[in-house]
Amino acid sequence: MQLGFIGFGEAAFSISCGLKEQGIGAIVAYDPMWDHPTYGAQVQGRAETAQVELMKTPEEVLQRANVLIVAVPADKALGVSETLKPHLKAGDLYIDVSAASPKVKKAIWETIEETGAALVDAAMVGALLVDKHKVPILASGSGTDRFIELMYPFGMNITKVSEIPGDASAIKLIRSIFMKGFAALGIELLEAAHHFNVEELVISGIGDSLDGKSFEWSLNRMVTGTAIHAQRRIVELEGSIEMLQESDLNSVMSEAVKEKLKRVASHNLKEKFQGVIPGSWLEVIEAMKH
């Protein structure tokens, strides 16, 4: 195996450092910013630190590497696959770790399939800077089994999702709805709590409600309860929004939640469930389809 990277930013650097610690052999890489007047020194410094040989063109990487980790921004991923296609050969392993959508990952596979290379849609779902090469990776696509076989000896933490490119990225992006949304809600909550000088009481009060319970249990309780009480919660949230606006605080997240609750209420779930809180979140989601 000869490992190469296309894109040598934070992700490629962190993975390379971890793999080098595990005794992997030579690594080559290309980054379009390698000679940039502002950022070139950072790219070159990372390569030196990670003991990675920096190439001046992507073609040079593909002349050397048969296992390719493509770590580029999501909006560049498809274009990069088109650029690399003429230089791919049968047996190459093309591992895309970008945060591109499932649709883009499928398009990448359609682009490179005829070369005989295998694709891995790899979604990193952990703390990359902390875990480095051991960051949890969800993987799908035709090359997943080989990816696991090659990288398991070096301690990479890869879980196979399926043979279908896009499936792994779908999980990552669905998780992001919560992870990014939770952070944004937290900022709005903390801005308000700090404004009113009640942050300790707010944080501890929410903690009392959630601490010691599993995420699945809490999620189920909140979703099933909302199915019955959506309209009441809209009214309560309107009070929160009014308070934020009167205090000249941003209420964009609360307003978005209100709109989502209005959509839930429009399905008349309280009537469908005859006023009884359903036992599972799945019952709520299924009821909202009709």
From TrEMBL:
Residues 193-264 form the Phosphogluconate dehydrogenase NAD-binding putative C-terminal domain. Gene3D superfamilies: N-(1-d-carboxylethyl)-l-norvaline Dehydrogenase, domain 2 (1.10.1040.10), NAD(P)-binding Rossmann-like Domain (3.40.50.720). One of its GO terms (molecular function) is NADP binding. InterPro entries: 6-PGluconate_DH-like_C_sf (IPR008927), 6PGD_dom2 (IPR013328), 6PGDH_NADP-bd (IPR006115), NAD(P)-bd_dom_sf (IPR036291), Pgluconate_DH_NAD-bd_C (IPR015814). Residues 3-129 form the 6-phosphogluconate dehydrogenase NADP-binding domain. Pfam families: DUF1932, NAD_binding_2. This is NAD(P)-dependent oxidoreductase.
